[in-house]
Amino acid sequence: EAGVAQSPRYKIIEKRQSVAFWCNPISGHATLYWYQQILGQGPKLLIQFQNNGVVDDSQLPKDRFSAERLKGVDSTLKIQPAKLEDSAVYLCASSHGGLGELFFGEGSRLTVL
Amino acid sequence: KNQVEQSPQSLIILEGKNCTLQCNYTVSPFSNLRWYKQDTGRGPVSLTIMTFSENTKSNRRYTATLDADTKQSSLHITASQLSDSASYICVVSFESGPYGGSQGNLIFGKGTKLSVKP
Q1: How many angstroms separate the CA atoms of B7 and B111, rounded?
Q2: Other C-beta atoms within 10 Å of B71: how many?
Q3: Cα B110 to chain center, whole Å?
Q4: Nearest CA in chain A to B44
């Protein structure tokens, strides 16, 4: 079974530039999540999708972050404009739904200079 | 306030030795507790998921315990190997919440960074 795929693995940008991350969840998983993990901390949920609908985006900085999940499969997370404090690993995860097991991708490491 | 605290923050042990990582939580109402292993530069991988009624759960050399009365969990690693070097994250979920049991009710600890030396 293929795992959660993310790209790019690494991205370096200057502040005020924009960046986009892509995620392809495990086939059949209706629920998709984006987490932000700052060095030395646990992951923090940014947004949760159920199919192509948003379930929870209460911690998403909506003035600069946006995410979409077209057709209920792949998802894209965008940051525009980036700030220094956005430097982190962005993890995508998926599950069958509810409180089932969560499967994480390898993450996209963002460095903002 | 719902919180998950892990200790120690970091730990260095010699290969072949055992170790125990601690997790204390104040999450309520409790649904389940999970331990994840996160290798450097990789995404977290699930080790165990424990519900209220489970006291012990093993996965190869990893044994997790749960005391729902004291709201404490531990992860015991037996006969450590170099490949055990990683961060171990404790995650506790709500029984219910504004999103009816969604993964948005997960509370992550900051993790314990384990280094196994030869």
Answers
A1: 8
A2: 17
A3: 10
A4: A104
Residue A84 CA to residue A88 CA, distance in Å, equals: 10
Residue B19 and residue B114 in contact, taking contact as beta carbons nearer than 8 Å: yes
| Nearest CB to B43; choose among A44, A58, A107 | A107
pLDDT digits (tens, 9 = 90+) for A56-103: 898 999 999 999 998 889 999 999 999 999 999 999 999 987 667 899
Could you tell me the two tokens for B37?
């292993």
Which pLDDT does position B100 carry in this prediction?
46
The DSSP element (H or E) to which A56 belongs, if any, is strand A53-56
Helices within A27-99 (DSSP H only): none
Output the pLDDT for position B50.
92
Write the pLDDT tens digit of every residue in B101-115.
444 578 899 999 999
Tell if the CB–CB gap between A106 and B91 is shorter than 8 Å.
no
CB B19 within 8 A of CB B13: yes
Q: What pLDDT, on a 0 to 100 scale, did the predictor assign at position B112?
A: 97
**Between chains, do A106 and B43 touch, taking CB under 8 Å as contact?**
yes
